[in-house]
Amino acid sequence: MRAMYQPLEAFIGLRYLQAKRRNHFISFISLISMLGIALGVATLITVLSVMNGFEKELRERILGMISHATIQPFEGRFTQWREVVENANRHAEVVGAAPYIERETMIQNRRVHGALVRGVDPELEPTVSEVADAMIAGSLDDLQAGEYTIILGVSLAASLGVGLGEKVTVYAPEIRSTPMGAIPPMRRFTVVGVYEVGVHEYDSALAIIHIQDAGKLFRYGDAVGGVRLKLKDLFRAWSVARDLAMDLDGLYRVRDWSQQHANYFRAVKTEKAVMTIILSLIVAVAAFNIISTLVMVVTDKQSDIAILKTMGTEPGKIMRIFIVQGSLIGIIGTILGVIGGIALATNVDVIVPWLERNLGFDVLPADIYYISDLPSELRWSNVMTFAGISLLLSLVATLYPAWRASRTHPAEALSYE
Q1: CB-CB contact of 234 with 69 (8 Å)
Q2: pLDDT at 178
């Protein structure tokens, strides 16, 4: 007998997805619940994929200027940098290593502007950054030792009011005593290039010079300020840089890309978490529509429930009938939402241009936003998480109506038939 009753819950639950002919309203509400869950899941997947795309795009642009990790001495100059570069280039996970000197300065032409001046080796710099690919005028190779040439960010050049071939004065952040009094060391540089990476922090405040010129201006001699590293796996940047620093004598500071922009990446993480919670409410509202659907089904099927109970059906089986029905609504809605979300997230680059052409407007105007296309990165971990949330909410929504159905008294239910 137990084998005969085993498929009863699924069999009746499937039949109850379709209401009686005299009452199609319940079937309509079930359909609306499915579509609501599908819409919520699809929206979650699509929006978070677009946010992942923006995060990846901005991270790549930032990493194009700061490298994956840096090794710096706690005090003084970095004199063992050649050893670090050689060891790093032999490491299996390191793509490139390059020395640098970085100081905050003042740059003057027609105007005075604060800036971060970075001394780099033009031959090694392309192995750790993308600045060579971001040049919109001139070339990184135009930095020649001893010629005191400089490359400016596009916004910094505009603020100073200079172009290629013009001179700027760079003031070192130190004071030197002279017969004229205490004045900071300074040097005239010729602008030989302009870059644009699309990150205001760098386009408006970073200037690049040859590392030997930086060593003379800032009195580093043959030493440098640190070594920048680029790795195959950016998420192992800190551990690899730490291992390289541990092989050196003395104390060294190791920083990776996430620490250098901790506030930014923390803000992005918070935004994604808040957006997930807000959009999950759409799924929650749709899932709890299942409650009203099942309550109406229970009311509509009072006599059927009473007959099943008089035939000896246990209350637990009655509960499982309606749990199956509500869960099927959630499962079908979730599957539709996952399919729709994946389709939208993987075709954002096609759908958005199509909408722009047909509706006559730009979602991200190129004259306002540097990123004029909506990037998207679908992560399967997000898909599985959102599908799990949807299924869990759907299951929870079935519990009260199912429990109410199991409490039906056959005599009271049949007395109105």
Answers
A1: no
A2: 53
Q: Is 321 helix (H, G, I), strand (E, B) or coil?
A: helix
Count the neighbouring beta carbons within 10 Å of the beta carbon of residue 364: 13
241: CB partners within 8 A, 6+ apart? 69, 70, 71, 229, 254, 255, 256
- Contact indicator for 394, 327 with CB cutoff of 8 Å: yes
C-alpha–C-alpha distance, residues 56 and 171, integer Å: 36
- The length of the chain, given as a count of residues: 417
Task: Give phi and psi for 263, each to the nearest 5.
Answer: -65, -40
Distance, in Å, from the CA atom of 417 to the CA atom of 410, rounded to the nearest integer, reads 11
| Closest by Cα among 383, 372, 391 to 346 | 383
Tracing tokens 């790549």 back to the chain, one arrives at 60
Contacts of residue 363, defined as CB under 8 A and 6 or more positions apart, other chains included, come to 352, 355, 356, 374
pLDDT tens profile 17-65: 555 544 555 567 778 888 888 888 898 888 888 888 888 877 777 777 7
Residue among 272, 293, 275 at smallest CA distance from 36: 293
**What long-range pairs does 235-243 form, CB within 8 A, spacing at least 24?**
236/93, 237/68, 237/69, 238/69, 240/69, 240/91, 240/93, 240/94, 241/69, 241/70, 241/71
pTM for the predicted model, two decimal places:
0.66
